[in-house]
Fold this sequence. Notes:
Strand content: 15-25%
Number of domains: 2
Radius of gyration: 23 Å
Number of helices: 17
Largest sheet: 7 strands, mixed
Amino acid sequence: MRAGRARSVRILSGIVAAGLLAAACGGGKSGSSGNNVSAQQALIIARSMDINSLDPQRAYCDTCQIYLTAVYETLLGLDPKDNKTLVPRLATKWSSNSAQTEFTFTLNPKAKFADGKPVTSADVKFSWERLKGLAGSASYLASGIASIATPDARTVVATMTQPNSAFLAQVNASYMGVVEQSVAEAKGATTAAATDKAEKWFLANSAGSGPFTLASYKSGQEVRLKRNAAYWGTKAAFPEVVMKQTADAVTQRQQLEQGAVDIAMQLSTDVAKNMNAKNVTVRKVPSFNYVYLALSPGVKGGEALTPDVRKAIRLALDYKGLLDVTVGGAGRSQPSPIPNGFLGTDGLAPPARDVAQAKRLLAQAGVTKLSLSATYPTLNVYGVDFSTAMQKVQTDLKAVGIELKLNPVEISVWASKIGTDGIPVTALYFAPDHTDPSQYVQYFGLMPGSQWQTWTKAPARPQENQLLNQAFAAKSVNERGALYKQLAQAMMDDGVIIPLVNPDLYLAARSDIKGMHYSACCNLDLSQLSRG
């Protein structure tokens, strides 16, 4: 579980560490470009990459989701048509006991790794135990596992430390992918962080069962995949996939229009607007991604951030204006840290500006003049420029008598500060790891030891943990939904995490690329794409 874990936020464990990774270069023919490409040419993707690792049990980033889904298969998949339905992947069937403390999976006998060896229950056990043991950013997904039994080569039985209705969704997360145990162990992989030595090897090699394998990786430049010729399922449509580091949306658009790339993954609204180049398609879809403001009442400089002051800040914000200035209105405001569309969010009151009430709350708190420092990373994520967003927040708060001193910094500076002294006011972003709302409660709730309870040093609220445990043990979807709605409201009342913008996502590709989609677990599943 995320609660109680020193889990780094994706941007912290991704962009910061990306610059620290040594490039693991390899051979391979460069992908072709141009307007008239055949199905046998590489798929070229332009995106700003946030890779922190290619080790399947250490990686944790948006780009990592794409890579891991292509190379390391999970037991369950997610139907891209509805972003809700779990479908077979390595497992052909699965079940749980009535208490939701024991989950049994039956592996497909046809499943095999890229070297031809069968995928066995021992490989699953090793992969999940290694994920838990390395205590990395995604380890919360496996931290609730008490034991894993393998009664035969095709059967996996996972026993939880407590009821966990979210476990099937967690199994679908790309970070729960299966690595070939014998290969990984031969290269130094173990189930303990102190002894594991395999990460460097995984920068240049892979040991998965997916439709692609790693061809080469050049830090800050590209990730190159090649089709797994021995793949046990439907073969990938492309012989190669190249993800090219392309930092800004304007360049991504230019490369897409020129035919130099097939997909541009991070177009902002202003860049995507009126894009009508020949042989290019752009489709806007809702997303579960969002940018948020975070308040830390327990750190130095945040002492004035009492519950009334936090509520006043929430009421002072102009949410429609934030949508307009950041993404040109292409998105939604979001009431709770649990994103729009997730279980438990129906019927939540949308955030609304009320300057008069904000002023009354500040007066009630005895605050006549307040100055706060806001240190935030200089990022542009999901089309949201953080400096633009924070300048708008600064203007909104000024209207109620709060002076916000903006301090934009490089992500490495931000990471060091948030992890040590803490930051009174900051901004960051989040995208889902899987389809269950528990991940947001575990990360953003003020449960003892959760990530943001630790970072904000706010008083813990054990009642949130009690509600979450009830949700994990709930027997019906309706019961779980009601409990998550209570948790969503509790986090809104906490006023520590204030969502600013839930932007739409632009699916931009050459018109001959088929199967473009947005995945709630995996960002983009490359096996779903083809050219035609």
